[in-house]
Amino acid sequence: MVSLGISFSCVAAARTTPSLASSPSCSNNKPFASLHTTRSLETSRVPFRLEISYDRRFSAELRWKPSAAARSGSVVATTKPEPLKIMISGAPASGKGTQCELIEKKYGLVHIAAGDLLRAEIGAGTENGKRAKEYMEKGMLVPSEIVVMMVKERLLQPDAQEKGWLLDGYPRSLSQATALEDLRIRPDLFILLDISEDILIERVVGRRLDPVTGKIYHLKYSPPENEEIAARLTQRFDDTEEKVKLRLKTHHLNVEDVLSTYKDVIFKVNGDAPIEDVFVEIDKALSSILEEKSRIDSASMAAGMTH
Ligand SMILES: Nc1ncnc2c1ncn2[C@@H]1O[C@H](COP(=O)(O)OP(=O)(O)O)[C@@H](O)[C@H]1O
């Protein structure tokens, strides 16, 4: 069993403090999940420590432990906890959309997929849509001036602010990440789906979308429930082997820059695993953060009563 400690230090009006940390090594050098961070939230002064333990079968266990200051009761907290704010990233077909469906269902977050916003513009035949399509067909990133405003406006809608958000496939470059940082839009957790390249092609080529429900299927791994659904499934125009190779190249060129912006909140998951197993890991991490947020809220209320 390998243990990794993470400090979540919540200090009033403090900004995030990035720290370097290493992933624990496992027998095949690919840990199932890893999270390493020291970060500050803006709501209270309740330092907690998040501990993750791994065993050699990659099962990860997350535990919040109050630090000495929290145990001693020196707690000053003020505001209500915010809803969850999550980013999910990974190569094309790493399983982002699939996991987002499961997360959305369980946690009620508003799922915002940059690719869907762009495809909607393309479908509506707008000028921005036409320009975006030219880039997407070449496997390139759509220019920031088109995509940044689109995502920002969606994130600031009341539903996303109230229920929390799950941002899928965005930001994809340093300039997009910086634009969000400038707007002080930061996630609680940045989920990174880590997937082997040989598995990607098979996933892309077999991926299908139900245009009626928006559900994603895979002809082999997640087949449609009946003939009626099977008959109406569509394939994305950029889901060909040739295009995915270009998209993958673009992904590799940009991913490190994006990761460097969020290194304090990265949660890395082995995306090669079956859908349910990937979700178990993500679910553990999200419920742990929610627990922590409600613990801060309780501490905040207690502090309000004693001050
Ligand atoms: N863990 C998994 N195991 C097997 N197939 C998967 C897994 N996750 C996703 N898939 C399938 O792979 C394809 C790509 O997944 P998707 O969620 O659309 O990826 P992304 O949103 O990252 O591009 C889909 O057809 C999906 O059903």
TrEMBL record:
Annotated GO CC locations: chloroplast
Family recorded in the similarity comment: Belongs to the adenylate kinase family.
Catalytic activity: AMP + ATP = 2 ADP
Any Pfam family hit: ADK
SUPFAM superfamilies: P-loop containing nucleoside triphosphate hydrolases
Predominant location category: plastid
Family matches, as PROSITE patterns: ADENYLATE_KINASE
Compartment list: Plastid, Chloroplast
InterPro entries per UniProt: Adenyl_kin_sub, Adenylat/UMP-CMP_kin, Adenylat_kinase_CS, P-loop_NTPase
The organism of origin for this protein: Phoenix dactylifera
Enzyme Commission number(s) of this protein: 2.7.4.3
Signal peptide, first to last residue: none
PANTHER family: NUCLEOTIDE KINASE (PTHR23359)
Broad EC category: transferase
Name of the protein in its database record: adenylate kinase
Keywords: ATP-binding, Chloroplast, Kinase, Nucleotide-binding, Plastid, Transferase
Lineage: superkingdom: Eukaryota
GO molecular function: AMP kinase activity; ATP binding
